Amino acid sequence: MSLHVPSLRRSAFAAAFSLVCCSTAALADEPSQDLKGVVVTATRTEQSESATLAAVTVIDRAEIERLQPQSVADLLQGTPGLSMANNGGPGKATSLFLRGTEADHVLVLVDGVKIGSATLGQPSIQNIPVEQIERIEIVRGPFSSLYGSEALGGVIQIFTRRPSGAFEPNLELGYGSNDSFRGAAGLAGKVGEGWYAVQATHEDTDGINACRGKPSPRGAGCFVNEPDRDGFRDSSVSLKGGYRFSDAWDADAQWLRSWGYNAYDGSTSNQSDVVQQVYGARVHWRPSRDFTLTASAGQSADLGDNYLNGRYTSTFDTHRDLGSLQGDLNLGGGLWSLGYDWQRDRVDSNTSYARDQRLNRGLFAQWQQAFGAQSLQASLRHDDNQQFGGKTTGSLLWGWDFTPGMRLTASAGSAYKAPTFNELYYPGYGNTALRPESSRSYELGLRGTPGWGLWSLNAFETRIRDLIAYDASRGVPGNVDRARIRGAEAVASTTLAGWTLRGTATWLDPRNRSDTYRDKLLPRRAPRSARVDADRGFGDFSIGASVYAAGKRYDDLANGYRLGGYALTDLRLAYALDRDWKVQLSVRNAFDKHYETAAYYNQPGRTAMLSVSYRPAQ
Prior knowledge:
Blueprint: E1 38-39, E2 47-48, E3 55-60, H1 61-67, H2 72-76, E4 82-86, E5 94-98, E6 106-110, E7 113-114, E8 133-140, H3 144-147, E9 154-160, E10 170-176, E11 180-191, E12 194-208, E13 230-244, E14 249-263, E15 271-288, E16 291-308, E17 311-331, E18 334-349, E19 357-371, E20 374-385, E21 389-403, E22 406-417, H4 421-425, E23 437-448, E24 453-471, E25 476-496, E26 499-512, E27 528-538, E28 541-550, E29 553-554, E30 562-563, E31 566-576, E32 581-588, E33 607-614
Parallel strand pairs: 6-9
Antiparallel strand pairs: 1-2, 3-8, 4-5, 6-7, 8-9, 10-11, 10-33, 11-12, 12-13, 13-14, 14-15, 15-16, 16-17, 17-18, 18-19, 19-20, 20-21, 21-22, 22-23, 23-24, 24-25, 25-26, 26-27, 27-28, 28-31, 29-30, 31-32, 32-33
């Protein structure tokens, strides 16, 4: 992972909103069975998507194949409440801002294992191949009461591929613009009471010139002028398997490793060898229908060696060791959960940190119950951090099905985020006196499932205290900022004249409330964004288009550098050669729009990808 000293932080306010959207279907955790139409991230338990009280977006494998995304960022673009900033195209650092919170206020899990750099504080989603993904759950809102630090804005959980049938091979080859090649192959299946999945992928692209920066003035992107192509190369392998020993016992395990090379523009380094690795195992014991005990352990690694024109400069390797024990009990018509989480973050670098590891222990409890047409979800958690001591967070969610097809929801919750190792210990920059950031959030939602489709509206406010920002008076990061974020999200989908139509819209007002930058917009969040998808099949052909629009935003705390709004159009075509073989063509940014999501960092113009895939019909 290349070094990125934390950018100056801020504070926030909020907005209003409305309109239409895209939505998808099926999601699940990776317990021991197929869980179509089930989500787990919002409660850490199995729950039907229609029963969730939180705002949830689910993307399944069928949706991934229909949209033909080239990256996780492509797939998430247009998700309600989500803004992104990318530093120069494929494989480059990508930041996610969920509901206007910071890029390190989003917790990302892969198969239940927390990922991310302990130095940077955010995950390298650009290094997770989209071909490895079975489905994604995006839960918006504060969830520290279930997951601990980092979940101020929400939780994104990525599930890698697993089988639904006895034998499922797959193969895909693609070639496209910028001399881009993509390949994927895998086998998955069920054998008796067991199942397995093996998947390998490779992608390689010459890329684009990542940055149009200049040596000066300060803030000119990457601070250098290197007008070259900045390529990206990545290979990955995943292994998964599970076995049901009896009605009471089952277990599963998974391993994912992604390794590659990334070129970029920079004054201290411009090349990196990177590795993302996640592995974990889980055991379930169900002695009765009313009780389940789950024990899990895992580790994630974010590894990077950095170079400047081929000369080694630095290493930043971080590991997260994780363990969890959770019991779920049906009692009195409700579901009670009690759990314990253990986490150790470790840093291994040629840069000297005053402290290179720390422990966190968390104890949480949750109660879920329905009272006729009304439902409640309450959770409470206490974290004991080796450096910061105790931190207690909680949340309460309520839902009322006041008609058979309409649900009103309301929620309130608190969350927190512990400082990163860079913010605390980076030589010449860190501040060991930093306190964790904390927040309080409130939300009101309404959703319906009429005969013509589905729709939802959510309005929210988040207030954040002790935001970590650069304190110019002391020359180090400090808890100097506050933020107030208000926003609204709208989602709708329907079928009309044979067309499947989906739309999303987000209105956001992320305001800095610190004394220095009071009422300025927080950087890189688009106050308005929307996406519309339209798809239709014609026999063996299918066609589709997506239009994504984002309003102007600013790149800095002072709102001195404006990033213009833009609209992107993606087109897609698929033809089924037979039941098993398919040819696909996708064109991204079809009208060759020039835009930036981070100042001075270029984005690809019009690109195309032609691919052929083999997936035997089940």
